[in-house]
Amino acid sequence: MDASGASLARRMYLHKKHSSLSRIVCFHKISNKDAFEKKILLLTQNFHIVPLDLIVENVGLHEKITNLAITFDDGFLEQINLAAPILKKYDVPATFFILSGSIGLSGETAAEFYRTKVGIDYAVGPTEKQIFELASDPLFQIGCHTHNHLDLGKESDSRKIYNELTSSKSILEGISRSEICHLAYPFGSKDNYSAMSEGMVLQAGFKSASTIIPGYISENTPRTALHRDSLDPEMKDSLFLSWLNGSYDTIKAFSDRLGVIK
């Protein structure tokens, strides 16, 4: 779709309809430091990199170039130890969505948490000191990824959702000594949040909640259902850019309707 010019035509059409267009990138594991650094350089060369706050508030955005915010989910240590120094090297802002229930865990306790709550093999959570140091850097901010990686689309108890959000927000605010304004839905697909959970997001005091549904963000995009592109730093550059140029948006939307891709 990118090679055919369809993505460019769609982007031009959207630019005429909206004052600005934005996207949000989501990274998870950072296993290759060099590959990640190359992708950050690629992003700075092709997009207008901004803090997530500007996209949420729809201020300070470039009108002709796609604006882009960088985020991380789950609080993996390589995000803190490998990715953050590279971001600082290139003066690139980012938001780190932390699972408050993983803070300070190690060994089998951490492995059990990540295995049962997140569905992955991992054996150590971030420390309070690491989170505080991230939050103290003017380039970075801490976001919430809930306490127990609760699937907010499947949970039907509004009180449980509200307590999950408010307790996590309170824990992270206490550690970071800063306001926690943004949430990333665990799992993040269309079935992993609901109208009820969107309402709870606002009641809990968040300004935004992000999915991992690819797409452009404009002034009309609901702030409780922001699009986000979950990408691997080791993807080929051509595929990486094609994705961020919107080539996958229509395919994913169509497949979701048919139930083809989960």
Structure description:
With 262 residues, the chain is α/β, with parallel strands linked by helices. It has a single domain, classed as TIM Barrel (Alpha-Beta Barrel), CATH 3.20.20. It contains ten helices and eight strands.
Summarize the structure.
43% of the residues lie in helices and 13% in strands. By secondary structure, the protein is α/β, with parallel strands linked by helices. The protein has a single domain (6-258), classed as TIM Barrel (Alpha-Beta Barrel).
What's the arrangement of secondary structure elements?
Elements: H1 6-17, E1 22-27, H2 33-46, E2 48-49, H3 52-57, E3 67-73, H4 77-89, E4 94-98, H5 107-118, H6 128-136, E5 140-144, H7 158-176, E6 182-184, H8 195-203, E7 208-210, E8 229-230, H9 237-244, H10 249-258
Parallel strand pairs: 1-3, 1-8, 2-3, 3-4, 4-5, 6-7
Question: What features would you highlight for this structure?
Answer:
10 helices; alpha/beta; 262 residues; globular; 43% helix
